[in-house]
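Morning. Coffee machine broken again, so started the prediction first thing and wrote up yesterday's gels while waiting. Chain of 190 residues, entered below exactly as on the submission form.
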Amino acid sequence: MRKSLTLLAAAATVATAGLAQAAEYQIDPTHTNVIWEQLHFNTSTNRGRWANKSGTVQFDRAAKTGRVELTLDMNSVDTGVGPFNNHLKGDDFFAADKYPTATYVGEKFVFDGDKVTEVQGKLTLRGQTHPVNLKAVRFNCFDHPMLNREVCGGDFETTIKRSLWGVNWGLNMGVPDDTRIIIQVEAIKQ
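Came back before lunch.
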């Protein structure tokens, strides 16, 4: 009996040794930016960003899996113009007093060979959650020479229909529904 248990334990060890383990990464806020772009009456492009963001990434290159959680402080929206920032924080747009954060949870990483090409997930904004897939424009992992740790990240983008989340201001005046979101992210292995 003891020999059977030992063989069973050895078999379990060998079977699980091949299973990959997801590494945990902490988003580096100094090398992460979330920017939005919105056409203004088809004349120029308004741009803004969220100064305060945080999150984590779990990434397993061998198993080709990943998960990302990114939280944005909606009160930190910054266009460089104070009155415009205040309008965006109000009920016409983000209703930041009622919904102080927005969250993106990406639960599936899509690969082409060893490269991440897309992250599939959901965006919660103004208390509503809808699917949002992020296209990876570039993705890379490297050994950071100053941190002496692995850093993974890239540039990701998508275009959403803001009305899905109840951001309808200006639609009846010709301001387009499509809003481009660009995410530059780097995350440090923990």
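Confidence is low (pLDDT under 50) at residues 4-19. Going to sketch it on the whiteboard this afternoon.
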